[in-house]
Amino acid sequence: MLTRRHFIMTSTALFSTPLTGVALAQAAPSASWARWDAQVTPANYDPATSNPWGFHPRYLPQRVEHNPGLTPGDIHVDAVARYLYHIGTDGTAARYGVSIARGNLYEPGTYDIRRKAKWPKWTPTADMIERDPEQFEQFADGVPGGPTNPLGSRALYLFVGNRDTYLRIHGTPHPRSIGGRASSGCVRMVMAHIIGLYEEVTPGARAILYPAENGVTASS
């Protein structure tokens, strides 16, 4: 069984350019998508240094080493340190800061990334509506894509076999939540960060979400 200790190693050079990978074929981007991408991407954006959101710099994208034996293209989420790792082919991984779900809504496990989407529509699940109807029932018919949509700029859809778990790795209009526990089950990323990650993720890759160990505080 994989553990956090199995794959995390020390940081090396800062990540500054997109990883090389195979992206899911998309139709030509709409004018709205391009405009929204620009709206959520800081001026003179450099992934390694741009931080208008004001969170700890350790959550900015970096290139780090990983232990041998991990599958290139897979994603690993360290729920304690609040890091997402996208495994490369050269012994390194791209590391991003994330936020995870509140309390027992976080669901560790191994998932298949079966779909990915740009500026997706968001619809709360039946469980979300039942749990908090005052907050979610008004959105039962769904919310169109856009900069204020809860799924943000991009989403990776997590499945077990052919079953959609309704868990996502997605952008968020609330970037200050990065490093914390804020969602109803999903893994959140800064919108500008997931725009870069999205192009490198191939559907069919795995996403491994490690347990959130209560009482452990990650250090930089």
Layout of secondary structure:
Blueprint: H1 4-7, E1 8-11, H2 31-40, E2 62-66, E3 75-78, E4 83-87, E5 92-97, E6 100-101, E7 109-118, H3 126-131, H4 133-136, E8 154-160, E9 163-172, E10 181-183, E11 187-190, H5 191-198, E12 206-209
Parallel strand pairs: 3-12, 6-10, 9-11
Antiparallel strand pairs: 1-2, 2-5, 3-4, 4-5, 7-8, 7-12, 8-9
Kindly report how far apart the N and C termini lie.
25 Å
Shape: globular
Q: How many distinct beta strands?
A: 12
**Name of the CATH architecture:** Beta Barrel
Order of helices and strands: HEHEEEEEEHHEEEEHE
CATH fold annotation: L,D-transpeptidase catalytic domain-like
Count of individual helical segments: 5
Q: What would the average pLDDT be, to the nearest integer?
A: 83
Question: Roughly how much helix do the residues carry, as a percent range?
Answer: 10-25%
What does this structure look like?
By secondary structure, the chain is α+β, with helices and mostly antiparallel strands. 15% of the residues lie in helices and 29% in strands. The protein has one domain (4-209): L,D-transpeptidase catalytic domain-like. It has helices at 4-7, 31-40, 126-131, 133-136, 191-198, and strands at 8-11, 62-66, 75-78, 83-87, 92-97, 100-101, 109-118, 154-160, 163-172, 181-183, 187-190, 206-209. A hairpin with a 2-residue loop joins strand 8 and strand 9. It is globular, with a radius of gyration of 16 Å.
